[in-house]
# Entry
Amino acid sequence: MTGAPLLEIAVVLLGLTVLLVEAFATTIDKRSLAIASIVGLAAVLVATFFLPSPPPAEATGFWSFYTADSLAIFFKRFALVTTILVLIMMIDYAPIVRQTIHGATHQAGLGEFFAIPLFTCAGLMWMASAVDFVMIFVSLEVVTMSFYVLVAFTRRNPASLEAGVKYLILSALSTGFLVYGITWIFGVTGETNLARITAALSAANVERMPALFGMALVLVALGFKIAAVPFQIWVPDVYQGAPTPVTAYLSVGSKAAGFVVLLRVLEPFFILPEMQKLLVVVAALTLIYGNVAALPQTNLKRLLAYSSIAHAGYLLVGVVSLAGSAVGFYLVSYLLMTMLSFAVLIIVSAQTGDRIEDFNGLSSRAPFLSFAMLIAMASLAGIPFTAGFLGKFFIFDAAIRQHQTMLVVVGVITVACGFYYYLKVVRAMYWEPAATTGAVPVSQFSRVTIGALIAAIIFLGVYPQPVLNALRSQPVTASATR
Amino acid sequence: MISALITIPLVGALLASIAPQNRARTVALAFNFLAALLALTLWRNFDSGAGGLQFVERYAWIPAIGAEYLLGIDGFSLLLVLLTSLVVPFALLARPMSRGFCALMLLTQAALYGTFTAHNFILWFLFFEMSLIPSFLLIKLWGGEERDRAAVKFFVYTFLGSVAMLLAFLGIYLVHGTFDFATLATLGKTGLLTGNAAWLAFAGIFLGLAVKTALFPFHTWLPDAYENAPVGATMVLSGLLSKMGVYGFVRLLLPMFPNEMQAIAPWLLALAVCSILFSALAAWAQSDLKRMVAYLSITHLGYCMLGVFSIGASPSQSLVETQAALTGVMMQVFNHGITAAALFYFVGLLEQRRGSRGIADFGGLMQRTPLLCGWMSVAVFSFLGLPGLNGFIGEFLIFKGSFALAAAATSVAVFGLLITAVALLRGMQALFSGPLPENGGAFDDLRRGELTVVVPVSVLMLAIGIAPQWVFNIFNATVVQMARALA
# Structure
């Protein structure tokens, strides 16, 4: 096994280097560290396209915990792109971090702010490759630990601190569930490797109840990561309190990693039919809760938190329908549109605030930003010829094929709810009179990034084939759909 | 070939948007010239004896959802492509406008070419929606006093209609797994869907198309939009965009839902008749010239709908009458496109000269501006269906066909012709004769540049009116094939 693991090693080394430089070079502009990190991650991203074709996954032996199949590579790229975008947002967010940290210099703390996401990224990349419960646990913890720090990073801000504590406690609890569940499954099968667990569970004389119990516990932990009902309680508060780039990171990176693991464990889990029924219920509840609770929100960051729950619901419909590539495509579209809305949110809220009414009349003050937000909201709502539409379409298509009629009906109704609350933002931007005047400054770097995100959303909405091709011929879906 | 036809205006839009402000229109017209040349080439190489699709371009696009890049031209498509190539440059010549305006017009043109030639729903819908955004912006940015309200109303109406249509097609896709128009039409013969699902799908598609054609009672966006849009945009809206709805009715609803059409045909015919009579009466009551023509446009689209619904009422009764009605609908689509654009052009000229467009603001134009009045009368008489001009042909054929298929509705609808004539002639009388208004300032007659636009269009109207055979030849084979498929 060479090639793929080097990617994570490179990212970790990059993170360590950035930390060391920031510790010793006290006089440099810390934002150059972010630029260096972005360049480094971009280099790793390019490297993923030149990997030697992976050897068939080892059934036993040292490397049996790690896979480099196309799903893994796809989500490694996903993690890298997410992290790059988050770092770009962090540059815009740096002034607010400075305000809330009183250090020796005006740049104290910024270096860590740029370095920690690199370790999160490495964790996400490991998670994409994890096919063993021990590996899943360890990589999940790498991600979670770094998020503990990031969520509470603006520590003089009470809201951020509250978010940090809430995330810490609930996340630790879910970790407890995960480990406990893993031990039950290990107790039944004597294995931690997913493939070997599948084989063991297929045997006739396996005890089903303890295995089901263990899987339900694992599902609780994963439900926490992907913000599925009833494990979503932490989401609105943490999303609202955390620094906005971290919120974006949580809602995209953390969620995507949760779904990769969920896709990986499907094969052993779905041997027991009860698990599928359980997931159907969770998906329906998540759809209803996320969309209905989003309706009355007046704070955009909180609205996006509920919308993130709602999208977890659509993704779960895809998972239940065993549509790995539909879930993958949905995650990509979700990445693009969520990042776009958070990028605009960061720039606008730096000037006014993050309530929806702060966006009133934005179209006259910042036509480019409001157009970007328009595209993001249109895509989140699922308007045709944006990536969000095709994402939902693929999911519902797969659900119909699997005869999940109830989920499709619930899904279509909740899409209508989504139209209401996403277009509320559009209405504020284009139809309400502006409370303040004056243009909103946008740095050139952000402008290019936002432009690229808009282009990507529309391109994938019209021609999704590149992503579908990258997701094709992956073992998980191939075996899961049959 | 067809892809090139769609690409030319797109490239033109790009260049027009970066061209110097005073050159933008020239760039736009140059690209229109290219597009028109290509459209004429298509016409020349078109085998008018064949009813099916020609110049087919077919590529895989998103195999996972059955979306194909499928372009093709049959007689009806070719007719509308030619109409588009004619009306858009005409609209661009109406008034010199900024580069943004020209670019958006070209964008609309590309969307129209696409809508009229795409034969896979996803692709068709892409173009269908693509036309919406530029026209929304054209109204919102360059419109009249009430432009914001009119633009939003236009957008919300057509967008909701589109959403309903999209949901209907997604439902059909989930049952049949295809978006291909031809396949769906074949399936439609035996009933595309059953029970309530069929009615839901029918209602969704009907809503989307009815809003676009401004069928009563989904028409209320139209007078506002037409009145407030800048004159060039109004010409394109009335001449071309409303035709997308008629095209959709003939291409989608008639072949895909024959049973449903037949079952509620009396109601649909009643809607068409209401559309004709009420809007004609409303036109009579208008004091604003542009708004009057807008209402009369609804009347004329109502004739098209009368033809379509009467075919739906009893498709198998008589092949000859079905053909007559279909021919009439297509002819009316073509003629109304030219005539409505011409009439709005004249209204634009009057508005430009006087600065207002209330009927009462004018009077005695015959003395000062005989040329303007003379050429305008050609458009007016064509609009009210005087024999010898193009407007007559389409209306006559629609009535001929629909009388045999749905006699009662047609008999009532004929009164629409009378009211239209009264409304238009009343307006013309107030405009052309009588005393000059007191505040009437200097008022130029048609200038040479305007004459070079007006004369060819009027000659064309006359040519179609006297010898319409060359237009029939474009779509005759297609009509025969369609009528046979419906029977």
